[in-house]
């Protein structure tokens, strides 16, 4: 389990992460979404002990990352956006090196390297130099190093960036498989990817958490009124006669040879399944076959834009004003929205971990000016 509480990271006058709190339970795949500069990579670097925090806490399986860094880090496998690979090594050499750094040795090390090589399907290339491997295989080697030691939590930052469609499909399946045995936190800019593999989504904007829910619930919350598009095998006047006999709806007939209509339920709480069922039985009773029946839904892209764009408007396709960010609440009823907008600049927050205390122990610190360069290791 990951427990993040009131996490804050400042660089001088710039706040990259502001009073961020969330929990990732065991055995779940969580998606971490947000525009560039939202604070995703900064948060992940703090969670993995690569970067110090200004305030707040991160608890990994009961161990505070700042107070018990070794115990916490032993439970985390991390794949940064740019895999930390030594290209003059082979995958086998590299994984043995990382395994020794994680405290593995002897038969345990040999067994673990073999396990992760098989799990990530890099056995055929484990004796080739990493610099000769494709982008997809390099990403697999990066995943293998994150899996070494069988950590309970795996954190992945943009794991499919730069991959071709076939490689993306393979990595997505690997992430699904990992989710059966590990807690996975996945950061991505590819919204369909998050929707395809994650059971829960966290959305950040300006360093604050603005939404936390399942993909289906987020789409439902932002869908507004229930609207269905209907196509029937008949004339428009025949469809009009059927629709006029259905209570609690309003509709618009569209021009064309085939009867087409956009039907909206008067009750905003009515679900699409209920409306489709009523339409089906009404048209069946009139012996007017339905050729197509599809509910309009707010997509995850609509939700993302609504929550992360300044002055965002109602999502496309919504028939009523969408929920505002401050209307999104967590399971306990608490507001999950941020307050005042903060300047963007996650790139500034991607500063060197050199501002962490000596010895690699990333602890809480007083605010510091941003350092130049990246913190990828």
Mean pLDDT: 81
- The whole-angstrom Rg is 25 Å
Largest sheet: spatial strand order: 6-7-8-3-9-10
> Any idea what the shape is?
elongated
H/E element sequence: EEEHEEHEHHHEHEHEEHEHEEHEHH
Report the sheet with the most strands, covering strand number, pairing sense and barrel closure.
6 strands, mixed
Measured as a percent range, the helix fraction is 25-40%
Number of strands: 14
Q: Structural class per helix/strand content? A: alpha/beta
Q: What fraction strand?
A: 15-25%
What report would you give on this structure?
By secondary structure, the chain is an alpha/beta fold. It has 12 helices and 14 strands. It has a 6-stranded mixed beta sheet, sandwiched between helices. Helix 4 (106-119) crosses helix 5. The longest helix is centred in the middle third of the chain and has 15 residues, at 165-179. It is elongated. Residues 311-361 and 366-377 have low confidence and may be disordered.
Index terms:
single chain, 377 residues, alpha/beta, six-stranded mixed β-sheet, elongated
List the helices and strands and how they pair.
Elements: E1 2-11, E2 14-24, E3 29-33, H1 40-47, E4 55-60, E5 63-64, H2 69-73, E6 76-79, H3 91-101, H4 106-119, H5 135-147, E7 153-157, H6 165-179, E8 183-187, H7 191-197, E9 200-205, E10 208-213, H8 215-221, E11 227-232, H9 236-244, E12 249-254, E13 259-265, H10 272-285, E14 290-296, H11 300-308, H12 346-349
Parallel strand pairs: 3-8, 3-9, 6-7, 7-8
Antiparallel strand pairs: 1-2, 1-4, 4-5, 9-10, 11-13, 11-14, 12-13
Helix pairs in contact: 3-4, 4-5
């Amino acid at each position: 389990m990951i427990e993040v509480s009131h996490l804050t990271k400042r660089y001088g006058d710039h706040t990259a992460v502001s009073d961020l709190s969330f929990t990732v339970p065991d055995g779940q795949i969580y998606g971490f979404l947000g525009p560039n500069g939202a604070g995703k990579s900064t948060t992940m670097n703090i969670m993995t002990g690569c970067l110090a925090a200004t305030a707040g806490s991160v608890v990994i399986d009961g161990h505070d990352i700042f107070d018990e860094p070794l115990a916490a880090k032993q439970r985390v496998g991390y794949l940064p956006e740019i895999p930390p690979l030594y290209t003059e090594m082979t995958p086998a050499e590299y994984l043995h090196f990382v395994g020794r750094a994680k405290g593995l040795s002897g038969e345990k090390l040999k067994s673990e390297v073999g396990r992760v090589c098989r799990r990530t399907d890099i056995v055929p290339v484990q004796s080739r130099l990493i610099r000769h491997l494709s982008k997809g295989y390099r990403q697999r080697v990066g995943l293998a190093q994150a899996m070494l030691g069988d950590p309970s939590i795996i954190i992945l930052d943009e794991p499919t960036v730069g991959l071709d469609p076939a490689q993306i499909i393979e990595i997505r399946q690997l992430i699904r498989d990992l989710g059966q045995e590990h807690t996975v936190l996945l950061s991505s800019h590819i919204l369909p990817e998050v929707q395809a593999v994650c059971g829960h989504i966290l959305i950040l904007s300006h360093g604050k958490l603005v939404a936390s829910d399942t993909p289906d619930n987020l789409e439902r919350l932002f869908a507004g009124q229930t609207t269905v598009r209907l196509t029937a095998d008949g004339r428009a006047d025949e469809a009009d006669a059927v629709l006029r006999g259905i209570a609690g709806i309003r509709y618009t007939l569209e021009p064309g040879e085939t009867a087409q209509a956009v039907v909206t339920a008067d009750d905003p709480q009515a679900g699409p399944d209920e409306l489709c069922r009523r339409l089906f039985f009404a048209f069946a009773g009139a012996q007017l076959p339905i050729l197509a029946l599809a509910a309009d839904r707010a997509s995850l892209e609509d939700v993302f834009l609504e929550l992360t764009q300044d002055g965002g408007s109602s999502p496309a396709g919504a028939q009523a004003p969408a929920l505002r960010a401050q209307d999104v609440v967590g399971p306990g009823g608490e507001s999950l929205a941020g307050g005042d907008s903060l300047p963007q600049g996650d790139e500034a927050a991607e500063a060197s971990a050199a501002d962490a205390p000596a010895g690699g122990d990333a602890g809480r610190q007083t605010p510091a000016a941003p350092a130049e360069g990246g913190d990828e290791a």
